[in-house]
Amino acid sequence: MTKTETATCQDCGWQGPVEETKEFRNVWDRVLPGDVMPAGECPEEGCGGAAMLDADREEADDLRPPMVALMLGLDRLREDLRNGVLRSPMALHLKELADYARRALASGAHVRPVCNACGGANVRVDAWATWDVDAQRWELHSACELAAICEDCDIECSYTM
């Protein structure tokens, strides 16, 4: 017997099967890049809060927060090394970053954006890149996930990972 996934509303406390949640409206006005994506919108009349998956589910943990922490930590470490700044707990800092990377690699799960309108996997977002003089290449600075375009259905869309 398979276990039913449940979610809990962050606003009113409703808890129930994920299938009972509504489509999450205005997603990019309500969820910031790097945040955990809600399972759906609360089905309670007049609530409209974000219903989040309950933590006791058997699937792998959401790796986005550790990956964001890894990215930011590596950027900070790189800047410190470029500027000649050495932090005293450097070994501890490097161990924490390595643990995040090991966890991400061990998961084996590959995610991709899927258009909420047509289900297509050719979703594109705008991004900013910075020229790295030392490396002689463009380095991704940030992605603007607020406006996505699905190349399959050729519309501006929201998406789910």
Attribute tags:
161 residues
Model description:
The chain is α+β, with helices and mostly antiparallel strands. The protein folds into three domains: 6-53, no CATH class; 64-107; 114-160, no CATH class. Helix content is 25%, strand content 27%. It has three helices and nine strands; from the N terminus they run E-E-H-E-E-H-H-E-E-E-E-E. The protein has helices at 27-30, 64-82, 90-107; strands at 6-9, 15-17, 40-41, 50-53, 114-115, 123-132, 137-150, 155-157, 159-160. A four-stranded antiparallel β-sheet has the order 2-1-4-3, with no helix packed on it. A three-stranded antiparallel β-sheet has the order 6-7-8, with no helix packed on it. A two-stranded antiparallel ribbon has the order 5-9. Helix 2 packs antiparallel against helix 3 (90-107). The longest helix has 19 residues, at 64-82. The protein is globular. The two termini are 26 Å apart.
Strand percent estimate: 25-35%
Strands ordered across the widest β-sheet: 2-1-4-3
Structural class from helices and strands?
alpha+beta
Count up the helices: 3
| CA radius of gyration | 19 Å
- Helix percent band: 25-40%
Unreliable spans: none
How much is the average pLDDT? Answer: 77
Q: Termini distance?
A: 26 Å
- Shape field: globular
Please provide the ordered H/E string of secondary-structure elements.
EEHEEHHEEEEE
Subunit organisation of the chains: single chain
Largest sheet: 4 strands, antiparallel
* Total beta strands: 9
Q: How many domains make up the 3D coordinates?
A: 3
